[in-house]
Amino acid sequence: MSESRLIGPVRVVGAGLLGTSVALGLRSRGIDVILADASPTHVAIAIDLGAGRAARPDDRPQLIVVAVPPDVTASVVAAELAAFPEAIVTDVASVKTGILAELAASDADVSRYIGSHPLAGRERGGPLAARADLFAGRPWVVAAHDAISYQRASAIDDLILDLGATLVEMSPEEHDRGVALISHVPQVVSSIMARRFLDAPNAALGLAGQGVRDVTRIAASDPDLWVQILGANAAPVRDILMDYRDDLDRFIEALGDPTAPGARRKVAEELTGGNTGVERLPGKHGTDKRFTTIIVMIDDRPGQLARLLAEIGEIGVNLEDLRLEHSPGRQVGLAEIAVLPEAADRLTDELAARGWRIAG
């Protein structure tokens, strides 16, 4: 068990995916975790998972982590600040400016509050989806403000480092603009694209490959939660969507007559701009390193993927990323393996020698 920076106890309010994952991560370091939730069932499940214990009247938490839906976050934070006057309180909601403003307007003691946001999650929610390592290597934003001292805010830094996340400091306004671009607008674009499938012929949907699945994967997210998130961060999301609409209009205009002078150049410029933009996204461990992809064909039989991964380990090549594709009606799957460019040739040769079929 690794030594914790926090002293504890830590009270976690909200035993869903994020709250229970925070609790499991802290329990793995020996921290006394107190669990609370409006749902007794969620608390009972989280306790059964080993995420912590039920609250007691004499609890005096060092830190409180509020992990509840965005539309009730401010009110829950205010209640926790009032109930535990010695504790530092943070929340993990995906918007920050509105919560801080609402707390300040209600005269809550914001000298003991600082908002934060781990950029981590899963497509499934609830305590059963929680993982102690959910935040490992993921960015976790601390949205500092002038009313809280650095000494008090250090407990939040300790929480983030204990859970293996990467601390990122931003103002609440910078955070909300940032997540609008890298999270909230992509959710809208993905959902609207997936909505095109409602009236699509079955024959067309049967052609679906990994590209369309990549674009629409997050469209399966919870609509109720996203209505809250988008409503709380509406202005930055709207600004970006309006710029995106301008980009689409230029593209649509060029496609209106693709033989017109300059039309193909306009299309190429937009696509090239996408290439340049995606290259700016940080890769594994926050680097801009580009990887080489090897596509391996896997028979649709139990144990084949596990054997492939084990043999990559035996060869001594580090797996940087993995993506699977299994198209309907095919008896094979495709494993797209990302490795460093200097390892690609050796891995290809070694896998082929072991009988694996390399596509392309």
UniProtKB/TrEMBL annotation:
It catalyses: prephenate + NAD(+) = 3-(4-hydroxyphenyl)pyruvate + CO2 + NADH. This is Prephenate dehydrogenase. The keyword Heme does not apply. Belongs to the prephenate/arogenate dehydrogenase family. Pathway: Amino-acid biosynthesis; L-tyrosine biosynthesis; (4-hydroxyphenyl)pyruvate from prephenate (NAD(+) route): step 1/1. InterPro entries: 6-PGluconate_DH-like_C_sf (IPR008927), ACT-like_dom_sf (IPR045865), ACT_dom (IPR002912), NAD(P)-bd_dom_sf (IPR036291), PDH_C (IPR046825), PDH_N (IPR046826), Preph/Arog_dehydrog (IPR050812), Prephen_DH (IPR003099). Its EC number is 1.3.1.12. Pfam families: PDH_C, PDH_N. Residues 293-360 form the ACT domain. GO terms for molecular function: NAD+ binding; prephenate dehydrogenase (NAD+) activity; prephenate dehydrogenase (NADP+) activity. The keyword Oxidoreductase applies.
